[in-house]
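Supplementary Note 3. Input sequence used for the single-chain structure prediction.
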Amino acid sequence: MEPVVLASLVTLDPDGAETLVAQLYRSIRTAVLDRRLVPGEALPSSRAAAALLGVGRNTVNAAYELLAAEGVIEVRPGASPRVAALEVGRAPGAVAPVRLSQRAGMAAVILRRGLAEGRLAPGSPDPALFPADAWGRVLRRAARHRQDGAEGYAHFEGLPELRQVLADQLHRHRGLVCAPEDIVVTPGTQASLMIAAAAFADPGEVALVESPGYISARATFQAAGLTCRALPVDARGADPARAEMAGARLIYVTPSTQYPTGVRMPMARRLALLDAARAIGAVIVEDDYDSEFVWEGRGIAALAAQPDAGHVVYLGSAAKSLLPGLRIGWMVAPPGCAKALCAVQRRLGLAANVHAQAALAEFMAQGAWRAHVAAISSAYRERLGFVGAALTEALGDRVQLSTPDGGLQLTARLPELTDDGPLRAALNAAGYAVSSLSDYFIDRPEQGLVIGFGTATERDARRFAAALTRLLEARDQP
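The predicted structure, written as discrete structure tokens, is reproduced below.
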């Protein structure tokens, strides 16, 4: 082979992440496997190759030695290196594509259009309100403290001290009566949903999901191979009387703060849901997200706190009260199911960070968590007022705003629209990460927007209301 031919097969980058030896080795190896260098073909000597490629001779010798060790080339004293006669070659275009499972395909389906993060994103807490100094102190102590084997693989289901403090907090503030052993600590609600789907339903079975409802719950259940059906939602939350209950294996609800409307399910409907689920042998998955934030009236105990709620699996997390990035959630298993949930969690590898768990346990035990929730609730209540007032002033009866009992978002129904997608896209292009209300429905979608207020200022609210008004007025123009 002429040295110039080798140069056409090799690309070296002195500033690349790999060493020059590794780059040269990979280039020649790929050329051999692609049959651009054929068996028996001679390669330039190390001296000639080094001169042509502008590298040291030792670099070429080291690459040749790696190739020879793999049997890709043959090196004999006094002779030019030659391409070995490999028994298995790889012709261009002969590699078959990897086949993905149906569940992987379902996991890749995008159910929500638009931006995931940005100004007025639904459900997003304000990172500026995170108690960084206080958290840093407890995290430093946690990092210095031995965690009784949890630095390895012990306590995969959660640190004992966190499970203990969670049991206490859930009893005092959400009404649950549970033992620490009933609690499984996870990396967040998405992980908890996947564990629940794997533990309580088989692929092909039915999950009832609120409509409108949490899009990621629907996506997670579909990725687990379940079929999702609508559980209709009205001004009093999920309505089991309007749902096709027969055959459902899981029923996903957000009774304390319905997502995305923010309404609270009254006691009569909660009892009806428990009765309906019990009658068909279904497991209720109660997502108690944002139960810390109550804007209207007083919060009521969790659904799982009812005396006849033995078929309810309870989910919570620190995502909104602290930060989503902490990746800490928790599940309370129905009676007799904790060991099965722990086993599924371990097989799926869904364990939470041990130092973050230890820090949260101390943060909760010393009362700092509840104090923090009280402080940020005041800020969020004020921001809800900013957004609601600005939209009402700008649009009047053109918009039907929800009055959320809790949560960090509100819904703005726009009955004049037949497709909220273009409006949402225009607002996204202007930097607002609001969502299309229609995306949250499984069937019979309503048109409008879902607007987060967690990071809103009064100026943000007025600017958004003005932008929305301009877009609607432009739509009215002939």
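The radius of gyration is 29 Å. The longest strand covers residues 227-234.
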